[in-house]
Amino acid sequence: MTDRKNHIPFDEDNYTHNIERNNERMLDRRGFMKTLVGAAGLFAISSLPWGTIAAKELMGLSKKEYSHKKIASLKAVAVGDSVDFSFPGEHDSALLIRLSETRFVAYQNACTHLRCPVFWKKEEDKMICPCHHGEFSAKTGKPVAGPPRRPLPQIQLKVENGFIYATGVKRYEA
Amino acid sequence: MKRSFLGVFLLALILAINIVTTQFMVHQFFYEHYTNTLACVALNLFLFPVALLIYKKEIHKGGKKYEQ
Ligand code: FES
């Protein structure tokens, strides 16, 4: 049995005993520098898509057409209530809040921290993100507590014939 | 055998700048400040050839490995 342990099947089999010096496999200075150059390349390549989209946005900045979308009827939303909808795309979830008899606000409700859905908490008069307790003011969409730094994108609204419509997404002031 | 760690230091510095720029780029993108985003992209792109140049310059600095 002890025999088997020390038995090397072939003379030529040098796949596992091919380290000639101590620490040969350690990352040396050159290898480390190579890794760092690779990292720089990775950063460069990964910033390309952001650049492309940013350039596209810059060129077509002025005109962005949104098709109007009916959210709910006036009667269905009581003061202090909120309605979930999606705007402009079907995956851009959004939140409509009726603050008073005449005042409505709507925001895209993906948290500006890590995109968890934000919900309206009537008792606290705030929008709350369940993930890391981010809080947003319902009146402005600005973050008031927690990790988020950027206000929620506001959705422009229009009330017509007893219905509430979403008409566009407001840009941040540049 | 004497080593030169200047290259390592400079490349680490570039990595640090890369990280900061990229974070700033993404945030500026979501803030819709697209000009700032583009500036960051340009910086990131520019840093790669710089890193490569430093690497090429520094790789043979210091003592040769097998020299006595
Ligand atoms: S995702 Fe909303 S606070 Fe982190």
Report what the structure shows.
The complex is a heterodimer of chains A (174) and B (68). By secondary structure, chain A is of the alpha+beta class. Helix content of chain A is 20%, strand content 28%. In chain A, strands 5-6-7-8 form a 4-stranded antiparallel sheet, with no helix packed on it. In chain A, strands 1-10-9 form a 3-stranded antiparallel sheet, with no helix packed on it. A 3-stranded antiparallel sheet of chain A has the order 2-3-4, with no helix packed on it. By secondary structure, chain B is mainly alpha-helical. Chain B has 2 helices and no strands. In chain B, helix 1 (6-30) packs antiparallel against helix 2. Chain B is elongated and about 50 Å long. Chains A and B meet through helix 2 and helix 3 of A and helix 1 and helix 2 of B. The complex binds FE2/S2 (inorganic) cluster (FES). Residues 111, 113-114, 116, 129, 131-132, 134, 146-148 of chain A line the site of FE2/S2 (inorganic) cluster.
Would you summarize the structure shown here?
The complex is a heterodimer of chains A (174) and B (68). With 174 residues, chain A is α+β, with helices and mostly antiparallel strands.
Count of individual domains of chain B: 1
Give the number of domains of chain A: 2
How many helices of chain B? The count is 2
Greatest contact pair?
A-B, 29 and 39 residues
Q: Tell me the number of strands of chain B.
A: 0
Name the shape of chain A in a single word. Answer: elongated
Main sheet of chain B, how many strands, which sense, barrel? none
Kindly identify the CATH topology of the largest domain in chain A.
Answer: Rieske Iron-sulfur Protein
Q: In angstroms, what is the radius of gyration of chain B?
A: 17 Å
Keywords (chain B): Membrane, Transmembrane, Transmembrane helix
Transmembrane segments (chain B): 34-55
Transmembrane segments (chain A): 31-50
Keywords (chain A): 2Fe-2S, Disulfide bond, Iron, Iron-sulfur, Membrane, Metal-binding, Transmembrane, Transmembrane helix
